[in-house]
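Q: Sequence in, structure out?
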Amino acid sequence: MLHQCSVPNGGYVLGVVVDAVIQHQSTTNQPDPIHLSAHYLQPSVPGPCEVQIRIQRIRRRYSNITADLYQKGNMNVTTHIIVGTLPDVNSLKIERATPTILPPHPLATRIPFYTHTALSKYTGKPSKLTFKNAFEQSKDPVVFEMQNKKSLGGTNGGLESSAWLELTEEPDKTTRLGLPAITFLADLGKNPPSILPRDEQPGESWFPTMSFQIEFKVKLSTLPDYIAPQTFGLWSYGRFLVEGRHELHTEVWTAPSAIGKPGAVAADDPNWRDKMFCVARSAQMALTIPIEVNRRKAAKGKEGVKL
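A: Exactly. Output:
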């Protein structure tokens, strides 16, 4: 099955693939992507593309399909996707045979943010992204300070960042974002080389993704009304950085309100963190390449660096 679309770059590419898969599965009893594993074979560019979907195996709960994105007859991205039915957050089964751990269980994972969105302030546009004007962001000062203290030693190390990200150009502020947008957001985590102390960071760089995985956690349409529809928390971390090659793990969390605005979950609610949901978790392997390399290719009229 072919889907016509336009592709700019990065995580948006996989958002296009996810959207095509959702359309393909819409008439089945397994309508949702559960897990996606992708390999980027060559860069995509703005323009027409095709997504070719093939069913590999059908099972009762989960099925396997492949979805490959082509431009000008060339395969740019190949993906393997597990499809099924995402759980409704209002009817999660809490059974010993199929365990579910949720707050207030002491072992449940809470959102790794410590500053409520209502108490947050805009801290500028997200990095140097070409689409940065579509977003506002607010970095969590607590996580920022925790990362700074790691530079003093005495910890297990690692490179960690977190920021609330809010869509600002959507005309209807009440529309809840879908899985294609979540896929896009999951690729906006801060790459570890750019979290290093300033005097250790590489020069202006590009971090091309070689492989990318994402697991979706819940059905977005079932999120409670108190969840902000277009604001999400991105918490990212990396543990290893070797000759510029690094891994980046990103969790996409719901937000209690828009940035700097009150919401149904008050900032003085001591349990506000317990009421948030992780909607997706991604992992990727990326490289560090001087931005001049890509600029030289672009100046010669080429599509970018071939990896």
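The chain has a mean pLDDT of 90.
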